[in-house]
Amino acid sequence: MRLRLAVAYDGTAFSGWARQPARRTVQGELEAALATVLRCPVDLTVAGRTDAGVHATGQVVHVDVPRAAWEEQRERLVRRLRGVLPPDVAVAAVTEAPPGFDARFGALARHYAYRLTDADSGPPPLRRADTVGWPRRLDAAAMDRAAGLMPGEHDFAAFCRRREGATTVRTLLALTVDREGDLVTVRASADAFCHSMVRSLVGALLAVGEGRKAPDWPAALLARRERAGEVPVAPPGGLTLLRVDYPPDADLAARAQVTRARRA
């Protein structure tokens, strides 16, 4: 049977989500904890494969386990996981997944936020893990104008680290920048993001915010069909996966089928 997990983590000390030999990863820690509690091997599928140093408050994962293992632990699984997981990973909820649910291919949208501050004092001490200190004052209004030119279905090759055989066409649903005091927040939503895409979008907007590029520069890069070397990749620590959206239960299987065909 299939379970759906709501997961959060501080990505600072992780080499990303995906399991890697001799590296500390979120997937590795979570699979080890689940295998210990459920007493069976597990293989996780995730909605968003976050990079090294990137955080999540709304990550979604699915896993297939024997029904007997679930029935034995269902009432106490979250609490038992808390006891074996490290403090920088938390499972907020575990539920039976509806038929056709796929954490990765069934998703309609992923929502991220990137936090940075241009205060002279740097990030507040209690937010230093998820807020990047920026050394120069930023024009958030110019950044937001640039961001407003980006949404739509485009080939984001200029902003992605290409993976062999993978498409870089994505539908960017929203990209906004706002300022609250010294805090500048970039919010990005899309059907999916390719490797390093969000941090590259932020890097391009930062070039606008510093006055080094015009507001129409990031959108002009959408004409490229390969990675734009002049686009900086923003540091990972400011980025957090906030939420993943899914269709109604009756539409889950159809959504997963469409997404698999599109990504193939």
UniProtKB/TrEMBL annotation:
<dbReference type="Pfam" id="PF01416">
    <property type="entry name" value="PseudoU_synth_1"/>
</dbReference>
<comment type="similarity">
    <text>Belongs to the tRNA pseudouridine synthase TruA family.</text>
</comment>
<feature type="binding site">
    <location>
        <position position="112"/>
    </location>
    <ligand>
        <name>substrate</name>
    </ligand>
</feature>
<dbReference type="InterPro" id="IPR020095">
    <property type="entry name" value="PsdUridine_synth_TruA_C"/>
</dbReference>
<feature type="active site" description="Nucleophile">
    <location>
        <position position="51"/>
    </location>
</feature>
<feature type="domain" description="Pseudouridine synthase I TruA alpha/beta">
    <location>
        <begin position="146"/>
        <end position="247"/>
    </location>
</feature>
<feature type="domain" description="Pseudouridine synthase I TruA alpha/beta">
    <location>
        <begin position="6"/>
        <end position="105"/>
    </location>
</feature>
<comment type="function">
    <text>Formation of pseudouridine at positions 38, 39 and 40 in the anticodon stem and loop of transfer RNAs.</text>
</comment>
<dbReference type="InterPro" id="IPR020094">
    <property type="entry name" value="TruA/RsuA/RluB/E/F_N"/>
</dbReference>
<dbReference type="GO" id="GO:0003723">
    <property type="term" value="F:RNA binding"/>
</dbReference>
<dbReference type="InterPro" id="IPR020097">
    <property type="entry name" value="PsdUridine_synth_TruA_a/b_dom"/>
</dbReference>
<protein>
    <recommendedName>
        <fullName>tRNA pseudouridine synthase A</fullName>
        <ecNumber>5.4.99.12</ecNumber>
    </recommendedName>
</protein>
<comment type="subunit">
    <text>Homodimer.</text>
</comment>
<dbReference type="InterPro" id="IPR001406">
    <property type="entry name" value="PsdUridine_synth_TruA"/>
</dbReference>
<dbReference type="GO" id="GO:0031119">
    <property type="term" value="P:tRNA pseudouridine synthesis"/>
</dbReference>
<keyword id="KW-0413">Isomerase</keyword>
<keyword id="KW-0819">tRNA processing</keyword>
<dbReference type="GO" id="GO:0160147">
    <property type="term" value="F:tRNA pseudouridine(38-40) synthase activity"/>
</dbReference>
<dbReference type="InterPro" id="IPR020103">
    <property type="entry name" value="PsdUridine_synth_cat_dom_sf"/>
</dbReference>
